[in-house]
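Case study 2.
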Amino acid sequence: MNLTRRTVTLGGLATAAAATAPLHASQAQAEPAIKIGVLTDMSGPYRDLAGPGAEVAAHQAVQEFAAKGFKVDVVVADHLNKPDVGTTIARQWFDRDGVDVIVEVANSGVSLAVSAVAKEKNKIFLGSGAATSDLTGKSCNANTVHWVYDTYMLAKSTGGAMVKAGGDSWYFITADYAFGHALQRDTTGFITAAGGKVVGSVAYPFPGTSDFSSYLIQAQASGAKVLGIANAGADTINTIKQAKEFGIKMRLAGLLMFLTDIHSLGLDVAQGIALTDAFYWDMNKGTRAFSDRFIAKMPGVRPTMVHAGVYSSSLHYLKTVTAMGAAQAKQSGAATVARMKAMPTNDECFGKGSIRIDGRCIHPSYLWEVKKPSESKGPWDYYKLLGTTPADEAFRPLDEGGCPLVKA
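Prediction:
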C-alpha cells in the first residue's frame, strides 16, 4: 500500500509527519509512544539514494514490527546538506517534539553534527547514509551507531582491489567536506600500503558543483592511472558522465556508488565499474523479499544500501525497545544503545551481525562489477559479485580508530 504524507514548510525546512502502527488502546496507554525522526536529503544530490526511500524504509520497519506493546510515530525532515540546519532540526526534535531516535542523515558533515547533539541530549542517532569513519573513530560516542558502510570499508574494498589490479597511481576529485576528505584519506592509506602512490588531488565546492570539466582535465594531465571519485549521488553521476564525454582515459574508481547511480548512468556508460555495496536487492532470497515489499510502496525503484540500512537500524532499535520496554528505553539514549550493542542484529537485508563498542555495525562487504548491457536480464539487474570481505575484516580494527569508548 502507498504511504501518505502531510508536508508542512517551516522557515524553509520541509517536514512531514505520519503516525504509524497504533496498537490496542490498552497497550497504547500502558507504554508511551516512541518517535523516530528520519533526517535526510529530500531535495539535493543524495535524494535518490536516500530521501523519500529512507522514509519508506522507516515506515516499513515500523509497520512490520507492529503489535509489540507501544505506538510508534515517524517524522521526516530535509537537512538541506547543511550541518547548521541538521543541528537545528535535531535540537527541535529532541527538545520540543519528543523524538527519541534520529535515523539516516545522508551527509557526513550533518551526521557528525547530529551525533554530537544526540550525545548532548542523551538521545540516539542511527546513521545509514553518512560515510565518514570518524563517527566510530575520534568522534564516536555512546549515543551513536553507524550502519551499512564507512570510508574505511569502501577504501579497503574498492581502493585495495584497484591497486592489486594494477592501478598503482591515483588522482582524486574530492567533495570538499567531511565525507570527501575522509574517503580520500582512508583510500590513500590503502594505496600507499599496497605500494601505490597518489600524484595529486583537487577538492571542489560542495554542494553546488555540477561542472567537473576543469577538474577532469587536471586529473588527465597528472598522468595517474586511476581517477578516484571521492563523492556520491548526483555528483558521482555527473563526474562519470563528463569523464566519458571528455574521453578521459584513466580507470574510474567510484569510491561510493549506489544502485540508483548505475540506474541513472545506464549500463552503456557504467559497465565495468568496480564498486563496493553492502546490500544488493538481488543478492539472496531475503534481500529480494525485502525489496519486493519496498517496491510495492515505491513503485519502479529498487532500494539502495542506505534504504536497507534505515530499515535494518530501525528494526533493531524497535526490537531493543520491546526488550527494554518503551518507558525505560526513552529514559536514556546511551542505555538503549548499550542494549542494542548487547543484542545481535539479524534481518533480511544484512543477515546476522553485531554492533561493536565503538558503535560500528558489523557485517560483510561486497565488491561488485557493473554488468555489460548484454549481461543484464532486465531493469535493475546491474551487478555481478567479484568478492566478499568477511564481517570481521571489512571494517577498521577497534584499536586503530581512536574511539574514546574503546579502552586500551
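Residues 151 and 179 are 8 Å apart (CA to CA).
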